[in-house]
Amino acid sequence: MKFTFTVGDKEHHLIEFAHDLFWGKLECKVDDNYVPVEGLPHFLGQLEVVRTFLIGDTEKHEVRIQIIRPLLLAAISNGWKYKVFVDNKEYKTFGN
């Protein structure tokens, strides 16, 4: 699963997020720079995993991505959801 979105009013940032559903690898870039995110959420047996990071220089924002995995067959299921929150407000949901 891959998705992109922008954050910021005066200071815009492009955020690219990718999740390899088979291996569990998470990858996040802000303005083409990698942001460290750790994961393997479906191997941990958890139904939800949250990843949070801060972006911005003069206009700071907290971005939180809540990853919700399906109950069964996570590696091959299309039931993953990704809820994005910016400054503790729900911004957008990606996935099925």
Protein described:
The chain contains no helices and eight strands. 0% of the residues lie in helices and 52% in strands. The radius of gyration is 13 Å and the shape is elongated. It has one domain (2-95): Lipocalin (Beta Barrel), CATH 2.40.128.180. The termini are close together. It has a four-stranded antiparallel β-sheet, with no helix packed on it. The mean pLDDT is 83. The chain is mainly beta and 96 residues long. A hairpin with a 5-residue loop joins strand 5 (48-55) and strand 6 (61-68). The protein has strands spanning 2-7, 13-19, 26-30, 33-35, 48-55, 61-68, 81-86, 89-95.
List the helices and strands and how they pair.
Blueprint lengths: L1 E6 L5 E7 L6 E5 L2 E3 L12 E8 L5 E8 L12 E6 L2 E7 L1
Antiparallel strand pairs: 1-2, 2-3, 3-4, 5-6, 6-7, 7-8
Features:
0% helix; 96 residues; four-stranded antiparallel β-sheet; elongated; single chain; Lipocalin
